[in-house]
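Write out the 3D structure for:
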Amino acid sequence: MSAELVSILVLAVVFLVATTRSINMGALAFAAAFAVGELVADLDADGIFAGFPGDLFVVLVGVTYLFALARANGTTDWLVHASIRLVRGRVVLIPWVMFALTCALTAIGAVSPAAVAIVAPIALSFAARHGISPLLMGGMVVHGAQGGGFSPISIYGSIVNGIVEREDLAGNEVLLFLASLLVNLLIAAVLFVVLGGLRLRGRDVAATTGTTATEKDGGDYDAEDGDSDGDSGRLTPARTATLAALVALVAAVLVLDLDVGLCAMTLAVLLSACWPDDSRQAVGAIAWPTVLLICGVLTYVGVLEEMGTITWAGERVGDIGAPLLAAAVLCYIGALISAFASSVGIMGALIPLAVPFLAQGEIGAVGMVTALAVSATVVDVSPFSTNGALVLAAATDVDRDRFFRELMVYGGVVVAVVPAAVWLVLVAPGWA
């Protein structure tokens, strides 16, 4: 049995053990990375840790630290109230507000994880308070981010269009953007219906929090979980400073192109220095189990990359004689691997792999590139991707183990269904 096949089987065992036993999958993945790296791939510690996602570690810790501070001082409560006022208390519209917000952020140039990091804690806080499925709200945030992710001025769009130009392939920037937007919009609509979004019709904040008719008519909407004095609707110095920090985070990421994790960590430290009591609560609220889970799994994926398993899998696709079948397999490989790794990295590897098939003229380049791009990004709802991890970390007042399993199952459904759907629509007809 080849080393590559062994590494894949070990990954399957890690999933099996983690889902049947109460063991953090990240801890299992670290142990598997050590065993496979040392015994199978002959890697030293440096080779094993080469795949440790240091940047994602900082993103998860920094963002959850900053928003833990925001929860501790009531800023997230204030933001929830602002969202409620925006839609005049109609709960059914809130998930779509979150979808539109993340879509707009990525469409104008925000990196998808940055947009999710900014919006997810607010969205999940609202979901917890008003009995909305966290999977629904998290999915709306992630699919919104991916919906705008391929605009011609976006990060993903610029990268894919650049690869297409470098490989001298035919491209269509508008089709790429609209296809991604439409696919994610349709998925969000299905998710909305299946997870009870329609049952939110006719409900408003007054019905879910006990706000009186007078308060509702006044548009204040400040009775929240017993907060009868309306404190969550007032701006204190700590909340004002936290809001300024959130605005600074958005500006730093979108305008100055700074790292979202390092910026969030720095802003959290500054707020902690000013309000140390809030900091003591916030440090304990950092999503450490989620950090361990994600970093462990991605470290193992890094071992797979170091030992050539990812390349090996791609070469096996090259042995397929039928171009249409090979195209479908590439879409599935992109979706499956991207559920555990960088979507941008996967697109950068898969599009060049498709060039030999495209050169035969039996597959349209525009449709194939678009199908690969959508397949490799729509699966970011997986809890092992950056966006899914941020949603998991942002969830409040939920059973995290159960929510993790829900995200994993939902991610599996997306991986199983979407590549086939986009292949059928974009590749099989032979669009140019």
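Residues 207-229 have pLDDT under 50 and may be disordered.
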